[in-house]
Specification:
- It is built from nine helices and two strands.
- By secondary structure, it is an all-alpha fold.
- Strands 1-2 form a two-stranded antiparallel sheet.
- A hairpin with a 2-residue loop joins strand 1 and strand 2.
- Helix 1 (6-37) packs antiparallel against helix 3 and helix 5 (118-134) packs antiparallel against helix 9 (192-237).
- The longest helix is centred in the C-terminal third of the chain and has 46 residues, at 192-237.
């Protein structure tokens, strides 16, 4: 015997929320793939200074997002099917998956908030090492100039702090984006430290907003799934 009355409304409401959850999983998967193949981050994080690889902490987070998006799509489908079939077993499994996902999201959110500046800090340290070596005579031996030039062309910046002395050397070495004159280069080019902060902080805010939206949807789904499960159990008694 199928559910009736308010429980039937909850059944279709849960189906709608699960469909939104499934779509959110697809969006997160798509955004994660976009971040993974974004030209700016790819150009910078694939760099290698001598034997040292650029920090890959950002990509670790992206791979986690790809996995989360795929799992969300599976769980969303499971919830949709369980709601339509009025299956207590599927709904119970769905609720358990949601609790695990929610706990993982909270843990990842806390870790991300604590370490939100670490990614940009690691990349800036990598850039500073390449920058110092690029100003030395023996820098050609470990491709430091190529690394610095890639940073400057990708982010349209010049030098770590826009110091006139360093920028003059970089301009002479053809490592900065070329403007008409050195004065114009100094005026128009931004500090690379500032550009690195902007690059990663913008992407982290995007991830944070998506996580908050998904967490709210998950809370509603957990409540609705338990109410529907209880409704199905009660309807089978009569």
């Amino acid at each position: 015997m199928g559910v009736e009355g308010c429980t039937k409304c909850i059944k279709y409401l849960l189906f709608v929320f699960n469909f939104i959850f499934w779509l959110a999983g697809g969006i997160i998967l798509g955004v994660a793939l976009w971040l993974r193949h974004d030209s700016q981050t790819t150009n910078i994080l694939y760099l290698q200074l001598g034997d040292k690889q650029a920090p890959n902490t950002f990509y670790v987070g992206i791979y986690i997002l790809i996995a989360v998006g795929a799992v969300m799509m599976f769980v969303g489908f499971l919830g949709c099917y369980g709601a339509i079939q009025e299956s207590q077993c599927l709904l119970g499994t769905f609720f358990t998956c949601l609790v695990i996902l929610f706990a993982c999201e909270v843990a990842a959110g806390i870790w991300g908030f604590v370490n939100k500046d670490q990614i940009a800090k690691d990349v800036k340290q990598f850039y500073d090492q390449a920058f110092q070596q690029a100003l030395m005579a023996e820098s050609d031996a470990n491709n430091a100039k190529a690394v610095v030039k890639t940073f400057h062309e990708t982010l349209d910046c010049c030098g770590p702090d826009s110091a006139i002395g360093d920028m003059t050397l970089l301009w002479k070495e053809n490592l900065c984006p070329r403007k008409d004159t050195l004065l114009k280069t100094f005026i128009e080019n931004t500090s690379c430290h500032q550009k690195i902060d902007e690059l990663f902080s913008g992407k982290l805010y995007l991830i944070g907003i998506a996580a908050i939206v998904v967490a709210v949807i998950m809370i509603f789904e957990m409540i609705l799934s338990m109410v529907l499960c209880c409704g199905i159990r009660n309807s089978s008694v009569y």
